[in-house]
Design goal:
By secondary structure, the chain is an alpha+beta fold. The protein has a domain at about 140-215 and about 225-255: Mannose-Binding Protein A, subunit A (Mannose-Binding Protein A, Chain A). The protein has five helices and eight strands; from the N terminus they run ααββαβαβββββα. Strands 1, 2, 3, 4, 5, 6, 7 and 8 form an eight-stranded mixed beta sheet that branches. A hairpin with a 2-residue loop joins strand 6 (about 225-230) and strand 7 (about 235-240). The termini are far apart.
Length: about 270
């Protein structure tokens, strides 16, 4: 009797659940649940995709790291090569500068020796081929001195000197003073500035520091102005229109070393 009751209850419950399911299907309120194995497949696929992406990122990162490392090594080698090249160039420049300085010093020494030797030859033979002055000009230190016995006015004598790329002699140091005194010049115009007032004679030694050696404008000379001239070891003043000789001075050429050894004539500075 009890077994029948139990069976009847179970059957009733089954029939009532079936009715509920049918009722929900008809109305559309509640859909049947998705099986759990579908979600597992989707989750597994998503996990695999993420792993593949991570693996791909790792591979790309490794490739980027290796490439960057190789490029950095190349760049470092190039930088080292550049630094070494710059260092070698700097050392070569220093070496060349040292050699150039030595060559210049040697050239200067040879030039000094040649000048001294030529001067000794000039003392024995005034028109020696090594003389750095034009023919018939006197040589002293770095200058050439020329006498022009034309008996001209001071202004005309100044023009004569200019024609030979020279100027009237100015005595501004002891060396020039002693040279001029040793030659005993008489009645030669000097490069003293013309002046309006007359000056008494003065010993040549007293004129070295004189500001009168700086020749001023001479374009407006007239018969009332005075110009200085040398007579032995004294300086006198006379009218600039008086007629006297011209004593000119200009820079000497460099002594040519080959002119001491060869027979060619040096070029005179005209």
């Amino acid at each position: 009797m009890s077994e029948e009751v139990t069976y009847a209850e179970l059957k009733f419950q089954d029939s009532s659940e079936t009715g509920n399911i049918q009722e929900f299907d008809q109305v559309g309120v509640k859909a049947p649940p998705v099986p759990s194995h579908v979600w597992r497949q989707r989750a597994l696929a998503l996990i695999l995709l993420c792993l593949l992406l991570l693996i791909g990122l790792g591979v790309l990162g490794s490739i980027f790291y290796l490439t960057s490392k190789i490029e950095m090594e190349k760049l470092e080698k190039l930088q080292n090569f550049k630094d070494k090249l710059q260092s070698n160039v700097s050392l070569q420049l220093i070496y060349n500068m040292d050699n150039l300085k030595k060559i210049r010093n040697l050239s200067s020494t040879l030039q000094e020796m040649a000048t001294k030797l030529c001067y000794e030859l000039y003392r024995k033979e005034p028109e020696h081929k090594c003389k750095p002055c034009p023919k018939e000009w006197m040589w002293h230190k770095e200058s050439c001195y020329g006498e022009f016995k034309k008996y001209e006015t001071w202004q005309q004598s100044d023009v004569t000197c200019s024609y030979h790329n020279a100027s009237l002699v100015k005595i501004k140091n002891k060396s020039v003073l002693e040279f001029i005194k040793s030659k005993k010049f008489y009645d030669y115009w000097l490069g003293l500035s013309p002046r309006e007032d007359h000056k008494p004679k003065k010993d040549l030694d007293e004129t070295i520091i004189s500001s009168d050696w700086f020749t001023r404008n001479t374009s407006d000379l007239n018969g009332r102005m005075y110009c200085g001239y040398i007579y032995d070891s004294y300086v006198y003043y006379d009218f600039c229109t008086s007629r006297k000789n011209a004593l000119c001075k200009k820079l000497a050429n460099s002594v040519k070393i080959e002119s001491i050894l060869m027979n060619e004539e040096p070029d005179g500075r005209m």
